[in-house]
């Protein structure tokens, strides 16, 4: 699950206004999908794992979010052939160049793509793919969150894995 601090920065980078058509590739538990849905607009999420689909649907019910379409499938094959204003890639398990090319073709002008990565390798592949297909204003931000943990009668900050957030824009 994408931690709340990472979701906050991810949503900021998506630049949501509440009226966008949003695509979430690699829905996972649905945490980013639900935050986008609560914000407004129309959200489509794609998840390849059956357990993930079940969890997303339970979480949508739990948070009473009803503006989300859930697709059980893998990118890029399961990406609907329609336009989007914002795309979030939280996981794909596929070739980033093929997925990012398809996303670029479906994004409206001034559309935004945001991808979260855990590994340096994926950060590099996604950034390189975004540059190759024509995204502009590409930026990378790495966030490191630490959480307090009580050890005896003191508190320590324990580091979570750093997350790289990559954002790019499709210009006209």
Structure description:
This protein has 172 residues and is an alpha/beta fold. It has 5 helices and 9 strands; from the N terminus they run αβαβαββαβαββββ. The chain has helices at 4-14, 31-39, 50-62, 96-106, 120-133, and strands spanning 21-25, 42-47, 68-72, 84-89, 107-117, 136-143, 146-151, 154-159, 163-169. The strands form 2 sheets. A 7-stranded mixed beta sheet has the order 3-2-1-4-5-9-6, sandwiched between helices. Strand 4, helix 4 (96-106) and strand 5 (107-117) form a beta-alpha-beta unit.
Strand order of the largest sheet: 3-2-1-4-5-9-6
Cα-to-Cα separation, first versus last residue = 34 Å
What global shape is seen?
A: globular
Structural category: alpha/beta
Kindly state the mean pLDDT as a whole number? 94
Main pleated-sheet profile? 7 strands, mixed
Task: Kindly estimate the percentage of residues that lie in beta strands according to DSSP.
Answer: 25-35%
Helix content: 25-40%
Low-confidence stretches: none
Order of helices and strands: HEHEHEEHEHEEEE
Number of strands: 9
Oligomer: single chain
Give me the number of helical elements.
5
Whole-number radius of gyration? 16 Å
